[in-house]
Specification:
812 residues; mainly alpha; two-stranded antiparallel sheet; 36 helices; 5% strand
């Protein structure tokens, strides 16, 4: 460009630039994580998830270690990710080195940069299990864990499938054994995994091992000087000389520097044993702890009772029995004095070494009774927070607030605020809930019930069941009827969400009966709705309608608009399933009006799709596609993957009816990928049937049969009678087209029997139509007429578009 602009051709300049550009290109190609990036859309997408914590502003003395991580090359042959292990004693800066390296390497791994903190040296309730870690990373990359199978191997396979060949950077922090890492190691040779541990992990085949310990004198001096400079604090060089002469452990020298900045005066370093001894570095922190004011000391030692990663002012206040402002002040002072960490904007934390000192220091040690009372205050606080966030998220089961005893904020949350709050504090909420169960707290159900809806949203269903099952056992021992009702209700919702409708029905009915005895009409209404939903999925439409009408009446009396609208929507679905399209439209229109008045757009999208399905069934394809497209826009705006996949499936069906097979296949296959990724078994089965129909009408009978048989197996596993009948009829049509007429008749008979039993007139009409076509092929005109006339009668009553098709067959 310079040559062109100056109109002077310089061969020396041209050749030099050519050589430099070539070398840069070769270097980029050789960097791990960048291979094939130009040909892989996912690789050039810099919008992947990033959960790395911020690195410290002052970082020195690890240049060689950073270089080893930055220049590490993948194994040859590259059949697995590049694995780097950082080891060192507590306080040696392993996590900080990993985080600093992660930020420097992020551009090479654009598919995502993930940080998973195992907290292996926290108490049991606060440690991250491999199941927890897999559930978290799957949710982060948008591939929710399986709703029915929480088996570690299955989740690990799902994780590897989600990563595929994409370039991810994954930091697994504070591991105690190789078994914690193995399930999260992706198969992608373009990914990099950095693991930190206090020791070498047998069984972990690391490609690079970086060991860290005390800093050099020069590096320690640099860290102290930079922290003092950033804190606008000036001290004599002799002070810094004294610090680095005695202390080189990164955690310790940072603590001393923070103390100097906080107090604006040099601190007493105290006597220190030789560097090689195990206790090296603890004396300055112990001295700081002993010098704390009583309130600060109380907050400091009570922080150690919290099992999660974030201690907020509200949590500190509950644990210490203080006001929130007093607790906030103490946390701020502990942070300034280098005892409390501030790893992110959402709360304070402890380094493991400092946490151990809180337990070891005997001054003002709490009595066991005081610790028990502090934990119970924590449990009650988190129970109230969970009730508040569930209200913000419009959770269906209403959880009354436990008795208020703290001074925490009682302000309500919007849905968006509640969602963000859960994202920030989910690990804390789960850890406290586990601690309550481990402690045998009699009101643990307040926590498990509060967690159930949050975990259902995150598709972390098996763990939610585990927590509620444990809480249920506690309520049975204590005789807590309200707690038992809540646990049964949550278990019913969790079982329904994972397709186990019979067990879900039992739990929901037990909860409904218990709430009836307690006189809790709001939750009785919700459980009646759950009963109706399960009966709907089990194709018992008469009972489902009766239960849902009772639920809607209860919701109206309790002025629960959301429950009323949900119930009306389900009643519309039931009426559609039984072929009463006018009644279905009326119910759905009522629900749509309520959602519109309340500004509940996601549920508006649900109703739009249901109305669009009726439009499609009655032949108004333009209206159907318009409704589906509008719903797709709403779901996309809300980042609702399930909703988007649902809308695409419905648009794909319309495209297939219109004969636009290529567009239909693209939409249906995209929906199938999404539903499979999210492990939505019923939705996945539905798309398989639609793909079966599409490939059949397009002439690919082999592919059609594969989809149909897959769907049939899934429906049978879920005990979904209506779905199984649908798949049987589709496979019967394939049998007929392949000349296997006896098999076709058997399948049609099976489907007809099921549709008659569940009262599905649309399904019955479809079977009669297909039997009529088969009779025509066999030359049995009289039988064909009988079948077709029966189909015509049903379709005419339904107002369905297929009536015209049947008339044509009868006329022919």
């Amino acid at each position: 460009m310079t040559n062109l602009i100056t109109a002077t051709w310089n061969w020396w300049l041209f050749c030099s630039l050519l050589v430099l550009v070539t070398l840069a290109a070769v270097g980029t190609a050789l960097v791990p994580g960048t291979v094939h990036a130009a040909n892989d859309p996912s690789a050039v997408n810099s919008g992947g998830p990033n959960t790395l914590p911020p690195g410290r502003a002052v970082f020195a003395g690890r240049d060689s270690e950073l270089d080893r991580l930055r220049t590490a090359e993948p194994p040859t042959p590259a059949a697995r990710p590049l694995v780097c292990l950082i080891t060192g004693r507590s306080g040696s800066g392993k996590t900080e080195l990993a985080v600093q390296a992660g930020h420097r390497l992020a551009e090479r791994y654009p598919a995502g940069q993930l940080f998973v903190g195992y907290r292996s040296h926290a108490e049991s309730a606060g440690r991250l299990r491999p199941h927890d870690a897999l559930a978290a990373v799957l949710a982060t990359v948008g591939a929710a864990p399986a709703s029915t199978n929480f088996d570690l191997e299955s989740m690990s396979s799902q994780w590897r499938s989600a990563v595929g060949d994409k370039p991810f950077l994954i930091i697994l922090d504070d591991l105690a054994e190789a078994a914690q890492a193995q399930p999260l190691l992706p198969a992608s040779a373009r990914s990099m995994v950095i693991i930190t541990s206090r020791r070498v992990l047998p069984g972990l085949d690391a490609d690079v091992h970086v060991e860290v310990d005390a800093l050099s004198e020069a590096a320690a001096r640099s860290v102290v000087s930079d922290i003092l400079r950033r804190g606008s604090c000036t001290v004599d060089d002799t002070v810094i000389d004294a610090v680095v002469a005695l202390h080189r452990l990164p955690l310790t020298i940072r603590h001393i520097a923070d103390r100097i900045v906080a107090d604006r005066t040099p601190v007493s370093l105290g006597a220190s044993p030789p560097l090689a001894t195990r206790e090296e570095g603890l004396e300055p922190m112990l001295a700081t702890i002993r010098s704390l004011a009583p309130t600060d000391h109380l907050v400091f030692r009570r922080m150690g009772l919290h099992p999660g990663p974030h201690v907020t002012a509200e949590i500190a206040a509950a644990l210490a029995g203080l006001s929130v402002p007093d607790a906030a002040g103490a946390l701020s002072r502990l942070h300034r004095h280098g005892l409390a960490l501030r790893p992110d904007p959402y709360g304070y934390g402890f380094h493991d070494l400092v946490r151990s000192l809180a337990e070891r220091e005997g001054t003002l040690r709490d009595a066991p009774e005081a610790r028990t009372q502090a934990r119970e205050r924590l449990f009650r606080l988190v129970a109230r927070q969970l009730a508040r966030v569930n209200t913000g998220l419009h959770a269906p089961l209403v959880i009354d607030l436990p008795e208020a005893g703290g001074q925490e904020s009682q302000m309500t949350m919007s849905e968006r605020e509640a969602t963000e709050w859960v994202q920030h504090y989910f690990d804390d909420l789960r850890s406290v809930t586990r601690l309550a169960i481990d402690s045998g707290w009699s009101q643990s159900w307040h926590l498990t019930a509060g967690m159930a809806y949050l975990m259902r949203i995150r598709r972390n269903i098996p763990q939610a069941e585990e927590l509620n099952d444990s809480a249920l056992q506690i309520t049975l021992v204590s005789g807590d009827e309200a707690g038992r009702a809540h646990c049964e209700g949550q278990l019913g919702a969790l079982h329904r969400a994972s397709g186990r409708h019979r067990t879900a029905l039992r739990h929901a009915q037990a909860a409904a009966d218990a709430f009836d005895r307690l006189g809790d009409r709001r939750n009785q209404a919700y459980c009646a709705s759950e009963v109706a939903m399960n009966l709907y999925h089990l194709a018992d439409y008469t009972s489902a309608r009766s239960s849902m009408e009772r639920a809607v009446g209860l919701h109206r009396r309790e002025a629960q608009w959301r429950g009323e609208a949900n119930g009306l929507g389900i009643l519309g679905m039931i009426s559609r399933a039984t072929g009463d399209y006018p009644e279905a439209r009326d119910r759905l229109a009522q629900a749509l009006r309520i959602y519109g008045e309340k500004g509940n757009h996601r549920n508006e999208a649900w109703i739009l799709i249901e109305l669009g399905v009726i439009d499609r069934l009655t032949g108004d394809l333009d209206s159907a596609e318009a409704r589906f497209t509008t719903a797709l826009g709403i779901y996309a705006e809300a980042s609702d993957r399930n909703g988007c996949a649902w809308a695409r499936r419905e648009i794909g069906i319309v495209k297939r009816i219109l004969g636009q097979y290529t567009e239909a296949q693209t939409l249906l296959e995209e929906a199938l990928r999404e539903f499979t990724d999210m492990v939505g078994e019923r939705n996945t089965a539905d798309v398989h049937v639609e793909l079966c129909t599409l490939h059949r009408v397009a002439g690919d009978l082999t592919t059609a049969r594969r989809h149909g048989e897959t769907a049939l197996q899934m429906y049978r596993r879920m005990e979904n009678l209506r779905g199984a009948a649908w798949a049987e009829v589709e496979l019967g049509v394939l049998d007929r087209e392949e000349g296997r007429w006896r098999s076709a008749v058997e399948r049609f008979a099976s489907g007809r029997e099921t549709y008659a039993r569940i009262g599905d007139r649309s399904g019955t009409a479809r079977v009669l139509l297909e039997l009529g076509r088969l009779a025509l092929l066999e030359g049995e005109g009289s039988a064909a007429t009988q079948y077709l006339e029966g189909a015509l009668s049903h379709y005419t009553d339904l107002g369905a578009a297929q009536a015209e098709e049947v008339r044509d067959l009868l006329g022919g």
